[in-house]
Amino acid sequence: MRYIIIGAGAIGATIGGRLAEAGGEVVLVARGAHAEALRADGLRLTTADGERVHRLPVVGGPAELGELRPDDVLLLTVKTQDALAALDAWGDAEVAGGGTAAQRLPVLCAQNGVESERLALRRFARVYGVCVWLPATFLEPGVVSALCAPLTGILHIGKAAGGADGWARRIAADLEKAGFGAPVTEDVMRWKHAKLLGNLGNAIQATTGPEPDPAKAALLLRAVREAKAAFEAAGIAHASDAEQAAARDGRVEQPAGVRGGSSWQSLARGTGSVEADYLNGEVVLLGRLHGVATPVNDTLRHAANIFAREGLPPGAMSVEDLTALADEAASRA
């Protein structure tokens, strides 16, 4: 199989680089300065095993790659706010032997949140969710680090609509060979909803900084409580903390000193957008649909979006000011 990594950032480049190290055929999809660096100098990927440079094919879109192959796998790793454009562009690409990618090829949604699977299922016949536990850093074009050990990350895989099949098992086998844990699960969205709970803190990191602080932990706990209430009202199951800890225990140890999460990194790179509408905003949506107040998550969503739109530096707000905004919103709820 050939893996087309649509969005070769922190997650995509790590998965692509590790697959290539294991002998897999990989194409990276990237744009701008990052694409230029990948073409000129290769992908500089640092893992617990050290730094390697991978010189892989790099394209900006399907037109540059030409007709797709029946054994291609599309791995979607762009941020959710960019997923729709990517799905439309690649879904219409023609496959050798007839048909389009949307009709014939599997697409794996390896992203935070749970919206991309819904977007993909409207377009693609074969959609798989991937619950990504893969702390990685991408702050400089062409340079990515993912330092967990002994595994680089854990990627639960399953059909987005529920169940598992031969595609999922074959892809999981390739990922296992490349240094990842890749459990095939019948209920991958249950795992992705659990991961969403942890990602609610991305907006706190982005606006107040990644340094640990009891006040930040308290604000995250309030956001998680809102999310669990919304999940319960909507009848949405999620993996327990104990299940997640058991899946990771002793398998993905993260070294000290790793930089902030994905939203913090987006602000640091000046991308102009963050995922908050599909993380905290997912909770807000569920709350509005099912009559659950979610003022903390709405505050976090709004604050992170302002930082992105106005180009504010990550960590420029105090946690006290952010908490005060959440308290004010809660008093109005």
Structure, explained:
With 333 residues, the chain is α/β, with parallel strands linked by helices. Helix content is 47%, strand content 18%. The protein contains 15 helices and 14 strands. The chain has helices at residues 10-21, 32-41, 62-65, 83-91, 101-104, 115-121, 166-177, 188-199, 202-208, 214-234, 241-248, 262-269, 280-290, 295-310, 319-332; strands spanning 2-6, 25-29, 43-47, 50-54, 58-59, 72-76, 106-109, 126-133, 137-140, 143-146, 149-150, 153-159, 180-181, 252-253. The strands form three sheets. An eight-stranded mixed beta sheet has the order 5-2-1-6-7-8-12-13, sandwiched between helices. A four-stranded mixed beta sheet has the order 4-3-10-9. Strands 11-14 form a two-stranded antiparallel sheet. Strand 12, helix 7 and strand 13 (180-181) form a beta-alpha-beta unit. The model has no long low-confidence stretch (mean pLDDT 96).
Structural descriptors:
alpha/beta, eight-stranded mixed sheet, four-stranded mixed sheet, 14 strands, globular
